[in-house]
Model the fold of this input.
Amino acid sequence: MPQAYTTGRARLLRLASEGLTLAGALAAVSVARRSRPAAAAAGLALLAGSALQRFGTFEAGVASTRDPAYVVVPQRERLNAADAGHTGRIGREVP
Done:
């Protein structure tokens, strides 16, 4: 799934998130102490950065489900392991 995070819309959302979070943090540390509007803007930038990070993660998940390498291959591996008698679980099996 790492490729899903580094390409497409997920990448753009994550880059914007990092920029807004950095800008909000810098504004909060520097100018927000002296100005209430600057504090509000810093808070909004941090909030927007957090939201974009969440949306970027969601988009990466959606993109990874579109690629069969991330969905079909692991499912087939689990089925083959189950057919071979391996459940992939740790511990005692319950009958």
Helices lie at 2-6, 8-30, 36-66, 68-83. The chain has a mean pLDDT of 84. The CA atoms of residues 31 and 75 lie 52 Å apart.
